[in-house]
C-alpha cells in the first residue's frame, strides 16, 4: 500500500456541531475510494478540509503529491494544496463556458506552469501546450467535442470536462463530487467506465463522494462511511454492506 492522502484525528466544529469528528484514514494510491454517508454526514466538510477550503478545528492532513513525500498540508491555502497535487473537480464556471473544450484545457494546463498570468493570449499557438491538452481530451473521451463551446455540451460531457480539467494539472489525487449526479443511466455507466479506465491508465488516485450506492459498489475498492461526522466504517464494498452500523445509519435516515 502507498498512502497518497492521510488524515489524523481530523476534526471540524461549527459552533456546537461537530461536522467531522476525529476522522483518521489513509487513502491507498492503488484503490478507488468512495466516501458515502446520509445527508449531513460531513462529506462536503471533509472534502473542504482535504482541499484547504476549510481549516480544521484539530487534526492533520498529509498528501503525497508532486514531491513524492508524505507532506503535512494542514492549514495550507487551496491553491498551494492544488499545486502540490490534490485536485478537486469543480463545475465549469460561467467564465469558462464560453470557451471551447480545448481552450478550457489549455487554460488548465497553463495554470499549472509559471506562465499562468499569460493564459491564452500568448500561448494560443503553443504546439506543446495544444498537444498536452489534446492528450487529456483523448484520455477522457472528449476529442470529438474539442472545438465545442463548453456551454453547449451535454450534461454528461460537461462532467467529463470537469474531470479533464482536474487531470490537466497532473494531480496525484482527484476528489470527485458526485460524478454521476443528474445523469441518465447510460451517461452514468459511461462515467463509471471512464473513471475505472482513468484509474488504470493514469497515476492519479480517484476519491469520490456519491449518493448512488449501486455506482459506489461497482466502482470502489474501498468505501468510507461517515455518519454524523464520525467514520463508522472503512472497508471493501462487501465488508461495508455487511456492516450493521452502516445499515442502521442509512435506515435511520429513511425513518
Ligand atoms: N458552514 C457551516 N456552518 C454551519 N454548519 C455547517 C456548515 N457547513 C456544514 N455544516 C453542517 O455540518 C454538517 C455536515 O454537513 P456536510 O455538508 O459536510 O454534509 P454532507 O455529508 O456533505 O451532506 P449532503 O450529502 O447533504 O451534501 C451538517 O449538519 C451541516 O448542516
Which fold name corresponds to the CATH topology of the largest domain?
Rossmann fold
CATH architecture of the largest domain: 3-Layer(aba) Sandwich
CATH superfamily caption of the largest domain = P-loop containing nucleotide triphosphate hydrolases
Mean pLDDT: 90
Give the end-to-end Cα distance, rounded to a whole number of Å: 39 Å
Coarse structural class:
alpha/beta
What can be said about the biggest beta sheet? 6 strands, mixed
Morphology = globular
Q: Return the domain count.
A: 2
Read across the widest sheet, the strand sequence of neighbours is 6-7-8-3-9-10
Secondary-structure element pattern, one letter each: EEEHEEHEHHHHHEHEHEEHH
Overall radius of gyration: 18 Å
Number of contiguous helices: 11
Oligomer class: single chain
Q: Name the CATH class of the largest domain.
A: Alpha Beta
